[in-house]
Amino acid sequence: MTDKPTRLNDPQAMQRDLEQRVAFILESAGRQGATACEVVVSQNTGLSVGVRQGEVETVEFNRDQGFGITLYLGQRKGTVSTSDTSDAAISSSIEAALAIARHASEDPYAGLADAELMASSFPALDLYHPWGQPADALIERALECEAAALAVDQRLVSDGANVSTQEGCRVYGNSHGFIGSSIGTRHSASAVMIVSSEQGMQRDYWYGVDRVPASLQDPDALGRKAAERTLARLGAGPIKTAKVPVLFAADQAAGLLGSLIGAISGGAVYRKSTFLLDALGQPVFPDWVNIDERPHLPRALGSSAFDGDGLATRPQHFVEGGVLQSWVLSTYSGRKLDLPSTGNAGGVNNLHMSSNTGGLAELLEEMGTGLLVTEMMGQGVNGVTGDYSRGAGGFWVEGGQIRHPVKEVTIAGNLRDMFRQLRCVGSDVERRGNYLTGSWLVDGMTVGGA
According to the CATH classification, is domain 11-231 in 3.30.2290.10? Predict the structure, then answer.
């Protein structure tokens, strides 16, 4: 079999070509002595443009392709990656992986998932919606977005507006005969603004991302949003240290949900490196909290029919009634813990968190006095102890009303306490990623300021 150029103008043909290439690699690995093999390939193409102060700054076309080949000799594993898919390169890569496997230590937990567990049906997820716009059209959209932002206030200066469109294909196959693939699109737009005053310079942004180009926010509206967020930061300053409720805006709360997933992931559990090691079957949130995975949502950014081991994804609860129901497991981590995989090799898909109140206005009223966090800096999260300390910016709130912007503060607590002290989750669900949650109102956090 000879390598063929991928036909970018025909996504279904590209998908078939990559599936055939994966099948060829699996067959070749068996011929060269591997007892088992799995292959993952991704190919992405896209166009991105950037403008600044009315001038085109960047126009970039990308085409990326990579193969990851994992071979097994019994319980010994060798892994290689390559972007060259010629027959000679594939043969060489397989030889290299076999050489690595021969020198590797035996791992009793290594190997493919059981053949009978492979995904056998593939729901229609409607993930592929190409934009088909030339660079000129994307540039025009970026310029329109920037102009709309600058028109809000003459003090504003642009730090750039960008528009991007991406198409990709993912294929996973293994020597059980399983080959699964999907094609998808991802489009985005963003604007970053700067404003200066006697108190200093402030910077903020806004962005949109969606699989469907028509669902992106209108460029005028996106630009105005970026401008308004930037202007709202004028006069920002520190506040006095206090212990108060903290309201994490939805896009910031998504990071807290990510911290939960990190803490209950199989790797952290079998390494005993998580603050939730003893939490399975125990309350970790208030009893109104439900956190479930919804991998088959049409057009959603995190949707997938199968995981990185070839197992079918499925709707499932990780937290129900506030109680931790399950770890997040791949085949390997499940074997280490003597538990079945949850179909999460590669992570969760469209993790959704329940809400118990309305939008941001209702949350501000519920909080009364405290800090609204719209920006966080630094990586001060200890997954072993749960200790949490990060730089933050946002707005001081009194009587349910935003009073003034805040900068250069630190918010501190412990994630286990923060989860239990979660008072409200809003209905303002963040959908620009894989964690679908509204804003979080957390009681009793220490805000360190002047």
Answer: yes
